[in-house]
Amino acid sequence: MCNLKNLGALGLSGNQFSGSVPPCLGKVTSLRYVNLAHNRVNSSLPESLGGLSDLIEFNISYNLLSGEIPLEIENLKAAILIDLSKNKFSGNIPITLGGLDKLTYLSLAHNRLEGPVPNSFGKMLALEFLYLSYNNLSGEIPKSLEALVHLKSMNFSFNKLSGEIPIGGPFANVTSQSFLSNDALCGDSRFNIKPCQTKSTNKSRRKRVLIGLYTLLGIVSLLVLAVGYVVLRLRKTKKNASQADVSLVKEHERISYYELEQATEGFNVSNLLGNGSFSMVYKGILKDGTLLAAKVFNVQLEGAFKSFDTECEILRNLRHRNLTKVITSCAKLDFKALVLEYMPNGTLDKWLYSHNLFLNLLQRLDIMIDVASAIDYLHNGYTTHVVHCDLKPSNVLLDQEMVGHVSDFGIAKLLDAGDAFVQTRTIATIGYIAPEYGQDGIISTSCDVYSFGILMMETFTRRRPSDEIFTGELSIQRWVSDSFPGEIHKVVDYYLVQPGDEQIDAKMRCLLSIMELALYCTLVTPDARISMKDALSTLKKIRLQLVNNRH
Questions:
Q1: For residue 197, is pLDDT > 50?
Q2: Averaged pLDDT for residues 191-199
Q3: Kindly report the CA angle at 58 between 89 and 8, in degrees rounded to 5?
Q4: What letters, b where the CB count within 10 A reaches 16 and e where it falls short, cover 501-540?
Q5: 3-class SS at 67?
Q6: Predicted confidence (pLDDT) per residue in 286-295, tens digit
Q7: CB neighbour list of residue 28: distance below 8 Å, 6 or more residues apart
Q8: Can you give the CATH number for the domain in which 73 is found?
Q9: Which residue ranges make up the annotated binding site for ATP?
Q10: DSSP 309-354
């Protein structure tokens, strides 16, 4: 790429690139736009990029970049956007950034930056968006920032900043949300923080406190000794409850319809990530740079309202690392949407069937363990048993680290205490439905186990249960069963066990164990199927054996 001397734009976002940013890119002086976001680049940022003096936009967010931000960044004089967020940059913010007077958007959020916010930032008079949250920044917020009259949005939250928050210029319109979790900040009451104290006030206050302490010690010391323990316990309990309430409020932030519409560019089809029976999912970017997925329900369809209510009912009480996180919901009379955590690597379905993507054996096994962990939690980790009812590759989402998350609870069912099953008329995706579900509408946790068995077969054979080869009496379950164990190599994905592989024997033993488990999951009789807890335990043992054999 460094030989493309006339290259104007380089867009490589949303891939799996790793390693370092080529230093020679700094010599491609024709570059105006560089976007390497959402990859796994894990080097430091080369100083040579300072040679791109005509660069307009530079986005390298959501990577694993480390080290200090090079001082040579001051040479990007033409830049209007620089986004270095969601990396591992450390050290101080370069003072030289303040010389970029054309910059309108700067995000250094979610890094490991230390030291002060440079006073020179007050010289970036064109700046409209400034995001420095989730770092280890200390010192005061410079009053020089009051000169940034075009600044529309800023965020200093989750740092170690101290001193008084400025009130002039753009600070006149910001809220406390821009300064969360900076315990040493003080200022105006509208920021929901303590007021700043002058020196004379401090002396007077200290004197009053001392007098009060001596008086209290003399009068009520015996009383404190007698009842202190009980009082402290009560206060601690009350404080914990209060903190829990506050954390819940912060965790479920509100996003308006207007913000959602803006984030998705009017629910533009170019941002469409996928669709289901009752909904469409759009990628969105909030003003502070936060990525999200908006699941918008088609309220014109019968069943959409019920699907929305079901997801809200179930997900408001569930918390697990392998379930898709719901940020909030957004609803009005003619609009229903869930705002979900954005999963940059898309669905398992995409990874299984794209020609330019590949998952190795261990990656597929890890994703199956993630899915099994989530389903085990639904079945056993909550007071009410939850049956997902629609487990399939398109409902398994992959995050930045390729960790699997189960999504889409639109037709999920809750089993009341003491109930082993419920009946329904709702039909899930053909090919993944357990026999008793498809024939009689009987739903139990065993239905999820069956679907999980089909999901495992599909993941390691790379054949959909709806594939054209499965006609008449032949199903994917029958196909695997007929090949087990002697001819299992004929049905598993060819790319997992290629001839000449030194570890082909260990891999085949692993695949045999996986397919054996899948067959136990897909037995016709529900009571004969293995439980999800036991399936998860078995998968973890299979993984341990595979890793040990590799070493």
A1: yes
A2: 76
A3: 145
A4: eeeeebbbebbbbbbbbbbbbbbeebeebbebebbbebbe
A5: strand
A6: 888 888 998 8
A7: 1, 2, 4, 5, 7, 52
A8: 3.80.10.10
A9: 295
A10: HHHHHHHTT---TTBPPEEEEEEETTEEEEEEE--TT-BHHHHHH-
199 occurs within a structural domain: no
Number of domains in the chain: 3
Half-sphere exposure of 36 (CA within 13 A, CB side): 21
pLDDT tens-digit readout, 332-341: 777 888 888 8
Residue showing tokens 């199927």: 529
For residue 295, being part of any structural domain is answered with yes
Q: What radius of gyration do the chain's Cα atoms show?
A: 28
H or E element that contains 265: none
CATH number of the domain residue 391 falls in: 1.10.510.10
Q: Is the pTM of this model over 0.70?
A: no
Domain ranges, residue 75:
9-191
DSSP state of 381: S
Structure tokens at 6: 């006339």
Q: State the DSSP H helix or E strand holding residue 459, giving kind and residue range, or none if neither.
A: helix 445-461
Same domain, 438 and 329: no
The reply to whether 206 falls in a domain is no
List the catalytic residues.
390
Same domain for 399 and 435? yes
Question: Does residue 333 sit in the same domain as residue 384?
Answer: no
User: How are beta strands 184-186 and 136-139 bridged, if at all?
Assistant: unpaired
DSSP 147-171: G-TT--EEE--SSEEEEEPP-SGGG
Does 450 fall in a domain? yes
* Structure-derived torsion over alpha carbons of residues 253, 254, 259, 263, reported in degrees to the nearest 10: 40
Binding-site residues sit at 295
Q: Which of 341, 364, 386 is the last residue of a domain?
A: 341
Q: Which runs of E-coded beta strand occur in 435-504?
A: 442-443
Residues belonging to the chain: 551
